[in-house]
Amino acid sequence: MTDRFRTMAFSIDTERLSLRLRTKEDAECNFELLQEHQGGTTLSIDEVEQRMFERNMQAQVEGFGILGIRRLNEDRPIGYCGLIIGRGSFDEPEIAYEILPRFRGHGYATEAAGAVVEAAFATGRERLWATVGSWNAPSFRVLEKNGFSAHHSSTGERGEYVWMVRDAPA
User: Which of 136, 139, 135, 160 lies closest to 148 in space, CA to CA?
Assistant: First the structure.
């Protein structure tokens, strides 16, 4: 992490959610989300746990990372939301989020993303990115509700991606 940015909060509570750095208890949820991706995953649950541990270590160095999402006063994770370099950069990271299918449609992704956006701007960053498959209407709604707007599009291995951007409040 550079001295230019503060560390993002790794513990955030919202009206309905609790966001924390992911632990072993998040591995099953993450594994289920990976299985949903086109082609599934070849990772074992142990490899998912190891990858989450490595990302948490990386978060400590970079000052931002992925947080597991739980509904307040519940132990079972329902997804994740956080910042990654992804297609962005250290200075202008990308927001990433996923919610288990049975919990979609309740505004959890929108609420979690709003909390992460606020935490990201509190680090001193001035711009955030998100890349969304052109077919993913629910993600566009989450981002638009959180002040993101379309910037440009590009084509990747899984088709067209729309680059959404949000600048820090003035």
Answer: 139
Structure tokens at 18: 């609790």
Are the C-beta atoms of 80 and 89 separated by less than 8 Å?
no
The DSSP 8-state label assigned to residue 168 in this structure reads P
pLDDT digits (tens, 9 = 90+) for 81-140: 999 998 899 999 999 999 999 999 999 999 999 999 999 999 999 999 999 999 999 999
Residue with tokens 């729309």: 162
17: alpha, beta or left, given left = phi > 0 and alpha = psi -120 to 50?
Answer: beta
Phi, psi dihedral angles at 35 (to 5 degrees): -65, -30
pTM for this entry:
0.93
Based on its alpha-carbon atoms, the radius of gyration of the chain, rounded to whole angstroms, reads 15
Residues 6+ apart with CB under 8 A from 31: 41, 43, 45, 48
